[in-house]
Amino acid sequence: MTSILVLNGPNLNLLGTRQPDVYGSVTLPDVEEMCETHGKSLGMKISCLQSNHEGVLIDAIHAAKGSHAGIVLNAGAFTHTSVALMDAIASVELPVVEVHLSNIHAREAFRHKSFIAPVALGQIAGFGATGYLLALDALSAHLGRGRGA
Ligand code: CA2
Q1: N-to-C CA span, the chain
Q2: Is residue 111 a known part of a binding site?
Q3: What does the UniProt function comment say about this protein (predicted)?
């Protein structure tokens, strides 16, 4: 069974508790359960991790090499700041789909820049929690083309 890591960054543990107008009303456990259910229908085993710490996210990306076939990543605000996350993704050579609940391109200018996008397979933004499921579909299609474990 294809193993996929769903990785969430800073403050995403607060999902569903504040700013529902921007991020929706589903909680992070809801999102993770949706991913597990959808992943199962695609023949994927989903592992989920959230951290507010950049180094923990980097360690998880490094550890994914050899144990996961791909990563769904919402790096939160680190998206717009972290060369270190970009380097980590580039170093593991795993397909990464970047996800954002909100449409970062329709928000403040500082959210338009992504350090993840240049090293990602692609980016999905603006579809709320559904974006994570679309990301799993994208990874499934990509890996099904024979480019992954
Ligand atoms: O739209 C997204 O998914 C973001 O990655 C979310 C980040 C934001 O900094 C990015 O620009 C776009 C913020 C995550 C914070 O999530 C919260 C959720 C509920 C309440 C407070 C924060």
Answers
A1: 9
A2: yes
A3: Catalyzes a trans-dehydration via an enolate intermediate.
Asked if residue 11 belongs to a known ligand binding site, the reply is no
Residue 15, C-beta contacts closer than 8 angstroms, at least 6 positions apart: 23, 24, 26, 27, 28, 31, 101
> How many whole angstroms separate alpha carbon 113 and alpha carbon 80?
6
From 6, 7, 8, 11, give the residue whose CB has the most ligand 1 atoms within 8 Å, as the site to mutate.
Answer: 11
Helix H or strand E encompassing 123: strand 122-125
CA distance 42 to 38: 7
Check: pTM over 0.85? Answer yes or no.
yes
For the chain, the 3-state helix, strand and coil shares in percent, each to the nearest 5, are: 50, 20, 30
Q: What is the pLDDT of residues 63-120, one digit of tens each?
A: 999 999 999 999 999 999 999 999 999 999 999 999 999 999 999 999 999 999 999 9
CB proximity list for 143: less than 8 A, separation 6 or greater: 2, 69, 70, 95, 149
Query: Which domains are present in the chain?
Result: 2-109+137-142 (3.40.50.9100)
Ligand 1 mean position to 94 CA, how many Å? Answer: 24
